[in-house]
Amino acid sequence: MAQGLKIQTNGTTEIVSINGLADMQGVVGGYIERVCSVDSTQFEATFDNVEMWANEEGLIHSLPINMKATVLRDMVLGIPSYYAIVGDVLLTASKEGADVPQELIDILCKD
């Protein structure tokens, strides 16, 4: 079982246990889609890549905007995007079975 990080639409974060696709879908509330890969080059840190996952049908279901995840995605891509990420988001380690790095959790959980 791996440790992931849930970014809720209200900006709060929560550490979650992930044991496969069903758990990932439970965190985002439906079908999942990969948004982007997060690496340490945008931070003063060194950690392995992390994947960002969102609800594939979030726009169809009119889920609320997730500003924290949207800003993180734009920062990672290095360009502002023309669409917002909606719904709760899940961050998982790129390496299967690994935990999200504590360094990234510390960065994203700051007030």
Q: Can you offer a commentary on this structure?
A:
With 111 residues, the chain is of the alpha+beta class. Helix content is 23%, strand content 27%. It is built from 3 helices and 5 strands. The protein has helices at 21-28, 67-77, 102-108; strands at residues 2-7, 13-18, 32-38, 50-55, 89-93. The protein has a 5-stranded antiparallel beta sheet. A hairpin with a 5-residue loop joins strand 1 (2-7) and strand 2 (13-18). The longest helix has 11 residues, at 67-77. The protein is globular, with a radius of gyration of 13 Å. The mean pLDDT is 88.
Number of strands: 5
Q: First CA to last CA: what distance?
A: 28 Å
Strand order of the largest sheet: 2-1-5-4-3
Radius of gyration: 13 Å
Q: Secondary-structure element order, as H and E?
A: EEHEEHEH
Counted by DSSP, the helix tally is 3
Overall outline: globular
Structural class: alpha+beta
The major pleated sheet works out as: 5 strands, antiparallel
Which percent band covers the strand fraction?
Answer: 25-35%
Question: Average pLDDT across residues?
Answer: 88
The unreliable regions are none
